[in-house]
TrEMBL record:
Residues 495-604 form the Glycoside hydrolase 123 catalytic domain. This is Glycoside hydrolase 123 catalytic domain-containing protein. InterPro entries: GH123_cat.
Amino acid sequence: MDNAGGTPQDVVVPPVEGVAGGGTAYGWSDGGLHGTNPLKGSIDPLEVPTADLVHVWCMPSTANVGPQEIPRHLEPVNLLAARNERESVQIAIRPKVSWSSSGNAGIVQIQCTDLSSTSGDRLLVGQSIMFRRVVSILGVPDALVPLDHPVSQISLIPGETTAVWVSIDVPSAQPPGQYEGEFIISAVKAESESRSQCLNRGEKHRLYTELRNCLDTVEPIEGKPLDEVVERVKSATTSLRKVLLSTFSEFFSDNGPVDMMDEDAISNLSVRVKLNLTVWDFILPATPSLPAVFGISDTVIEDRFGVEHGSDEWYEALEQHFKWLLQYKISPYFCRWGDSMRVLTYTCPWPAGHPKSDEYLSDPRLAAYAVPYNQAVSGNDAAKDYLQKEVEILRTKSHWKKAYFYLWDEPLNLEQYDSVRNMASEIHAYAPDARVLTTYYCGPSDAPLAPTPFEAFVKVPKFLRPHTQIYCTSEWVLGNREDLVKDIVSELQPESGEEWWTYVCMGPSDPHPNWHLGMRGTQHRAVMWRVWKEGGTGFLYWGANCYEKATVPSAEIRFRRGLPPGDGVLFYPGEAFSSSSQPVASLRLERILSGLQDIEYLKLYASRYGRDEGIALLEKTGVYLGPERYTLEHMPIDVMRGEIFNTCRPMHE
């Protein structure tokens, strides 16, 4: 996809810089897209080509498409995806003129066809293909608010660009091949209404009476003989069919419902964006190769959604968040903080003996799970007895190898480090093979382990051994010194099961990879490139829903004071944008998924040619050389993925 382009037709608008200096993803250009026949007078969008009313162009998933994004030339979208992979692209729309009598520029209708291959295989809209509107948070494009499928309408604002995020999820069993479809944009009248809204009073009364009769036919069936129930359902079905045919006849042909894509909603006046997708014969593993464990604050859920800890509604809310995050190849854990950064973490709110426990912990999409040191929900058992029983049950399960205990967040002094050691000793008394994870960025401040802070940091494994198995260090400590990784790793004993994981939190800051609001899209995606290049075997993020406290689901979303914008918030409550209770993903969360998928590509390449060659590919394509040297543009990513596709695909493709 070529992203060269120029300024709008009538007005030159400078780019808007993001919160952290990320700005727009593609630099400012003085070239122009010049119109030839300016429209005059009243405009009827049903008589004028949509291309004369709006600019439409495509942008990659790493672009931050803000309101002042400048138009570019429209070109077909060409994507590459493995099976069990999600690929995304953005469709940008900006009005050239206004055709609405209201305050907005006008309304466009957007829809997408299924993607079809020459062999007849399909990727269906609403199942494999979804589109969402990009909404700005603090002036930066971030929230992805779901739109209706397969047809939706968007109101455009004069002088502003609107972006639609299109995602394609390729199922694991999808046949490889070339898939094609279209994304269709049509300008419509602002006052246009559906047929049902335009019915006169007499038609509405007729429709009401017929539907009421159908309801009266089927409602009193409780306790009735089966034969009578069948007859009533048949009668209601016949009546409903008559209602549909008499009221909505334009949507039906002799062969049944007509595809909306062939109806008058779409005309030759529409703008059509060609979507081409190559699905190749590589299946991303169901269980992610890199465990990426992300925290979800249970207290935030309790406060905002008004659910009492341990209630049925509480379990339902946690389950919704757990299942929703799995689609992002993330292994969630719920958490609540205690005094001095002691943290209670648990992936499953039910005890190990509950049937729900196996349902949660056996899910193949879950790469790792947190076991609580104390009960997530208080019961009658003493805490020590509870821990012992939990461990005894979990150790009999095949998924026990995914278990870890996360007890303390960033211990700072000897007392806190000793607390970790004491709790770990108790756990290992019941399960010598248990893995304890400890996050840290320094050694104990009141008992220096070495002359300099970094040397003391490096000596933490020796100080904590054998009470920690997963040493999870802050990327902030490394700065831009990748060479320091070997100093950390040299202190570990992988032969004894010790692992090195990393995390980002408030730091590192721009220009280093992180997930702050306003950073470049490639900067977000680069977090996982860095993990793979440095050789970490896991990743932790402290919070995905840690916005300021609110007691109403639809309350304004506010980031926590003292943190960089976006830190600790990767998705939003759906109620803040609509009546839907489904969480709303951020662009940053989608880019995290893309980064985790990149790791699977690099792992495949390294399995064929060796890890050194994998690192060489990452560097020679210009994708990632170091925390201050990574691509600012999307093209190198496509080049790297294309090289892996060309060298690793089966010869018969």
